[in-house]
Fold:
Amino acid sequence: MPSEAKPCPICRKPAAPAPLRPFCSERCRQVDLGRWFTESYAVPGKPLGEEDEVE
Structure:
């Protein structure tokens, strides 16, 4: 059973081959990176306590 290529997670167009995959363009790749930098995305995890906080 062949698997279908997933679309670009930003604009939903077909993804480009490596090294841009899973994005369709450098623009969408930069949009995604910007979302990580502005903390629009977050990896779920348990909240930090006082003793766990990084200085």
